[in-house]
Amino acid sequence: MTTTRTATDHSGDVRLSGITKTYGSFTAVHPLDLTVPEGSFFALLGASGCGKTTTLRMIAGLEEPTAGTVSLGGQDVSHLPPYKRPVNTVFQSYALFPHLDVFENVAFGLRRRGIRSVRKQVEEMLELVQLGEHARKKPHQLSGGQQQRVAVARALINHPRVLLLDEPLGALDLKLRRQMQLELKRIQTEVGITFIHVTHDQEEAMTMADTVAVMNAGRVEQLGPPAELYENPRTTFVANFLGTSNLLEAEVDAASGDDIVLRAGVSTLVLPRARCSAPATAGGKVLAGVRPEKISLVHADDSGEVPAGRNRITGRIAATSFTGVSTQYVVDSPVCPRFEVYAQNVDRDPRLVPGAEVVLHWNPAHTFGLDAAQDIDAGVGTAEEEALA
Ligand SMILES: Nc1ncnc2c1ncn2[C@@H]1O[C@H](COP(=O)(O)OP(=O)(O)O)[C@@H](O)[C@H]1O
Ligand SMILES: [Mg+2]
Q1: Domain boundary among 186, 206, 231
Q2: 178 and 50 within one domain
């Protein structure tokens, strides 16, 4: 009889249950429950020091959890040493053997297990990472991207159930990194095993992963498919760390029905209740958020052209920057000091220059609501600082 895998068969999942790591009085990873579905591309995303590497090392068995368990495919592996776990890790420093050529670097894991005829497997693996022609080169004769692919091939040849990647593209320049992102995604799709990828680069996480877990100070703040995290952030940290959000404090005017009516300065804004992650009661406060590309900008003289039913606020352009495909405007508004708007360069209005009075408007359905008790600036600038580091 053949057994068919169903959606409820999670035998290959990676499961972390209450996994915790403390160093003295410092908690690097707070009790964490996380399930990574078998065969998925999963990213742990967060700023430097938020606990990504520690989490990955606990999965690999390189770090002992202070509490909690790790299970792989339904088996508790918490007490297994790293080499007995069906897991391999690729690090940022590829750690290739400099005296061995590409072929022997990839063959290493097989030879160590006493397997004699390695040629077919190694050649297949080199084909997978498109290094067939470079088999006899030494690591120093390869580009950074090629070395990284050797490291991936060397890990995959052991047929791990899970491949862990710790900032594997961190040492590459931007263009090569973009190429390798697509390359790693292709390889993962082809081999179909679970990849858990650690990165501080939000664009990298969103490009590659099916599911992203955003970490902040040892905790997962939010987890989901990239588009869902981007469109429906539930915390200010996620809203600011993943792309850019305009957040403004607003008072709840009425909160019955499917829409919450907000008051911000002289503006009335509508927020779909389903997109508000905070409890909203009349008289209370929420943070209303909207992404810069969702907003349209018109000169104040044309304010009569704004269709009814749009959320709208007024302001004055403080700065513009032309980036080719779009123009980015910073608008000073009584309700938000630095409202960012990205406008595609289709027809540019020459009046939209610094100092101009403008009306910003957007579809209320694009508004999200967050708990006003949070720091409105959490996560702001973190991604940029990381990129420069
Ligand atoms: N062996 C250690 N002893 C003490 N603190 C540590 C140790 N390893 C990591 N940490 C601390 O734990 C936190 C998380 O580290 P890490 O998981 O490496 O972060 P990330 O990979 O997200 O940059 C950091 O504040 C780091 O300084
Ligand atoms: Mg790290």
Answers
A1: 231
A2: yes
Domain boundary among 177, 198, 231: 231
CA of 380 to the centre of ligand 1 (A): 22
- Residue 138's contacts (CB-CB under 8 Å, 6 or more residues apart) are 98, 99, 100, 101, 102
Ligand 1 center to 89 CA (angstroms): 18
Strand 219-224 to 75-76 pairing: unpaired
Residues counted in the chain? 389
What gap in Å lies between CA 330 and CA 59, rounded to an integer? 43
> pLDDT, tens digit, for every residue of 320-342?
999 999 999 999 999 988 999 99
Q: 18-77 pLDDT, tens per residue?
A: 999 999 999 999 999 999 999 999 999 999 999 999 999 999 999 999 999 999 988 999
Q: In this structure, what CATH number is given to the domain that contains residue 144?
A: 3.40.50.300
Q: Which domain holds residue 276?
A: 245-388
Which residue owns the Cα nearest ligand 1 atom 8? 54
Asked whether 254 and 260 are in contact (CB, 8 A), the reply is yes
Cα–ligand 2 centroid distance for 385 (angstroms): 15
CA torsion 376-377-383-385 (nearest 10°) is 180
- Strand 368-371 vs strand 285-290: parallel, antiparallel, or unpaired? antiparallel
Which residue's CA is the nearest one to ligand 1's atom 3? 23
Note whether 130 and 65 are same-domain residues.
yes
Say whether 115 sits in a helix, a strand or coil: coil
For the chain, how many structural domains are there in total? 2
The pTM for the full model equals 0.90
DSSP assignment string, 126-180? HHHTT-GGGTT--GGGS-HHHHHHHHHHHHHTT--SEEEEESTTTTS-HHHHHHH
